[in-house]
Specification:
- This protein is mainly α and 82 residues long.
- It has two helices and no strands.
- It has one domain (2-81).
- The chain starts with a helix and ends with a helix.
- 2% of the residues are buried.
């Protein structure tokens, strides 16, 4: 139903974006951790990753909900009108 979609779509976008952020930052630490530490000239790699996750990840998740939800709802409406 439309009421379910208005909750399901934003929550799915939010969760998917957060999972993506966690996976990308985890891969960054695993595969390029030494390079990032050298680039930052710091051993606080976890602090850096946490800062990026909280600032950029949170903003990305909010924007995904604000931008993605109306797009998906509009596409569903177009699909249903065909």
């Amino acid at each position: 139903s439309e009421k379910q979609d208005s909750v399901l779509i934003p929550s799915t976008l939010l969760i998917a974006t957060v999972i993506h952020t966690v996976l990308v930052l985890t891969a960054l630490v695993i595969f390029e951790g030494a390079y990032i530490s050298e680039l930052l000239q710091s051993d606080d790699l976890i602090g850096f990753v946490y800062t990026v996750a909280v600032t950029n990840g949170l903003l990305e998740a909010i924007l995904a909900v604000l931008i993605g939800t109306p797009i998906i709802l509009a596409l569903k409406q177009v699909k249903n009108n065909r």
